[in-house]
Amino acid sequence: MPSLSHVHLFRRISLFLSLMLVMIYFMEPVSKANAAANDEERQETYEQLKSGKRIWTDKAYVKPEQPTVYLTFDDGPSKLTDRVLDILREEGVLATFFMLGEQVETYPEKVRQAVKDGHAIGNHTYNHKYNELYSSVATFWKQIEQTEQALDEAADVRTKLVRAPGGTFGNFDAFYYYYLDQAGFEVHDWNVDSGDSKRVGVPASEIIQTVKNGPFGDEVILLMHDGTGHEQTVKALPDIIRLFKAKGYAFAPLSPQVKPVHFSAGKIKWNRSVGQALHNKLSAEAGEQRLVFEEWNAEQEQGSTQQEAGGLQVQGPAEEVWSVQEQQVLKGTAFEGNNRNVGNQSMPFAPLEIILGSGKLLFEPGKYRMIDGHNLVPVRNLIEAMGGHAEWREGQHTAAVHYGSRVIEYDFSHHEMRVNQGGKQTVYHLPQMELRDGTVYVPLRKTVELLGSHIVSYGVDKDNGRMQVEVALTGGYAFTYGF
């Protein structure tokens, strides 16, 4: 005869198994419904792309405080790249090199030197052959992957910057943009063409005059080339740099925070099509690529060396809000950017104080994050300090934020954000958000704006060694929260 304890154990096991069967019974229809909804969404996306509509993930870009020129060089590296790097070093400016995979494999040491000098690296496909790249989006995607691998092997580099050979006009359709965007890449055309490739051997004087003709906007993305046969571009480069210096421009490398220039669609020159099966395949690969970027970011964060000065840890390039001068005030030493970190991920170097009406919210370094040039803060702390509340829906793997009439849902199962207000829902696919160690991190500026408030100012509290952000709240919500 079994003991009483064995009977209880048997009953507990039976109850557990019964509960599991009940859960499976009720969850199966939900899973099927979710799968059907996902299929319907994919079909809708496909139809929109097929009609020519461009679909973008939600992103935030940073406008520079002064007119800025982004010098870009295509088709390298080549034997000319060393001289270009020498000139840039002599003039004290940084640039962006959109490199071909086959050239990277030929001149890996030049890639490493460009990275060492602090320049940005971009992906310019593998072989630059238009008839291959634009006859099929699958071929274009494959060449992006080939060049990504070549850069990784040559200089341990991954880049989110992409430039289409010949530019996107007449070459890209909505599908090309969509897969690259979903993967986390930024496609950059240009708004000033130096004219150095309109024919063989364009003289330096003509290149300089073409650049002088502008147009000169607040942000100039200048197209040049450092590939074989562009000796005249190298000759013209010092005068071009001095031209922009005389006009008061700052120089900077491109980054994911720079709003890209995209040409208009134009009539597509190529006879091609994308079927539903290929769309599903490339969409999945784009999602895998985004995960690669995220994993790379995590590895860089764990493995990178941090500088310490004045009790503050510093790493990576300046966050969008803080000027280099402000960072120098905070940490009391020269600031050096590390352009090798994908997405410009860096460790916070100072406490972050958010002023919310009469209240304040303080985050010490390590309690908030800096990714892609933006402050990411714990959403629960932020929303409660603003006077709202947040909840975690475990079964849905979703954080829900309630603030006045607004509800924001951060869905980590589908990697999307849903903003609900007045019966209307807006969905942002692949938004900037993180779930790390049980804490949901969201971008400060974007979240504040989605909640109907706005940021009034940024600054530095030199006495306390803090970065400060002042938020104007709607509805008079505010109370003090700190740790």
Explain what this protein looks like in three dimensions.
- Residues 67-252 form the NodB homology domain.
- This is Polysaccharide deacetylase family protein.
- One of its GO terms (biological process) is carbohydrate metabolic process.
- GO terms for molecular function: hydrolase activity, acting on carbon-nitrogen (but not peptide) bonds.
- InterPro entries: Cu_amine_oxidase-like_N (IPR012854), Glyco_hydro/deAcase_b/a-brl (IPR011330), Mao_N_sf (IPR036582), NODB_dom (IPR002509), Polysacc_deacetylase_ArnD (IPR050248).
- By secondary structure, the chain is α/β, with parallel strands linked by helices.
- The protein has 3 domains: 1-38; 68-302, TIM Barrel (Alpha-Beta Barrel), CATH 3.20.20.370; 305-399 and 432-482, no CATH class.
- Helix content is 38%, strand content 23%.
- It has 13 helices and 24 strands.
- Strand 16 and strand 17 (406-411) form a beta hairpin.
- The longest helix has 47 residues, at 4-50.
- The protein starts with a helix and ends with a strand.
- The model is unreliable at 304-345 and 475-483 (pLDDT under 50).
User: Within the CATH hierarchy, at the fold level, what is the topology of the largest domain?
Assistant: TIM Barrel
Radius of gyration from the alpha-carbon trace, in angstroms: 26 Å
The CATH class of the largest domain turns out to be Alpha Beta
What does the overall shape look like? globular
Number of E-type strands: 24
Q: Supply the CATH architecture of the largest domain.
A: Alpha-Beta Barrel
Percent range for helical residues? Answer: 25-40%
Distance between the ends? 59 Å
Structural class: alpha/beta
User: What is the residue-averaged pLDDT?
Assistant: 82
Stretches where pLDDT is under 50 for at least 5 consecutive residues are 304-345, 475-483
Organism: Paenibacillus foliorum
Domain NodB homology: 67-252
Protein name: Polysaccharide deacetylase family protein
GO molecular function: hydrolase activity, acting on carbon-nitrogen (but not peptide) bonds
